Amino acid sequence: MDSTQIVSELLDSYRTVGGINHIDGANLPSKRAVAVLCLDLLQLLFPGFYDEVVVTSDILEQNTRARVDSIFQRLQAEVSKSLRLVRPDCPEGEAEAIVLELLGNSSGIRELLWTDVEAAFEGDPASVSFDEIILAYPCLEAISIQRCAHLLYRKKVPLIPRMMTEWAHSRTGIDIHPGAQIGSHFFIDHGTGVVIGETCVIGSHVKLYHGVTLGAKSFQKDDEGRILKGGKRHPNVENNVTIYPNSTVLGGETVIGENSTIGGNVFLQHSVPANSLAYYEETQLKIVPKKVRGTHPIPGKTEVMDGNIGIPEGGIDKWCDWCI
Question: The whole model's pTM is what?
């Protein structure tokens, strides 16, 4: 087979296999441009951390002004392309206003990100400094991009918010949909394999470990068996909740009540009351009231009697570390 035959077969495929071609249509946002913009946003949010050269205070204003102007022009062009995919007559000024709003909120995003860095520092005994967290922790990069993308998502910008979070996903292994609503002091320890769905609502001071899924339980379908789009599909996680590795929480009506702890490898499709501990004892899921610090059970080492947690073998010093 020579190149002429290859081209001919590809052209035939383009004519007969629809749905994965974009020919003679409106200009699409550029994946490469969006990727570069994500890096530029990280430089704007964390000056000096994502730069190749030292950023000094005497040139900070000049650098910041140049960076804001550059991001504005390039992101406006990409947002304009996206808006015109659904509204071909969309005025240029609408894209301009959306990008100005995003950049105008950059100081507020920085304040939220400071709380996320603080949560990582306080929540991980291995962390030694804010510098290490900003430079080395994948969760902060994923959260930073998601917080920016969420503003574009709220303005109903097509494609770009998801392109941004998927860029972060490809770099960090953390998949946070731009639609998720996330409070302050959010920390994902280790992070690999975490999935947070579009309609999740996450409170403040929430900590997740690797492999946690906050997903959908089931999907409504139309008369032809096709999935209906939209609707509340993913759980709510209230303030001060910790979810340990590889646990799965599903369903739009599921709520993890505040101050609760979900142990490792737990599978939940229903709500958990506030101040609860959910864990597996052998093969049976247990949900019990949480005790004071230092009095949580080791699965398989305690008894639950009349809703109270018994003392484990070996005395109080045998309570586990993962749930305190």
Answer: 0.85
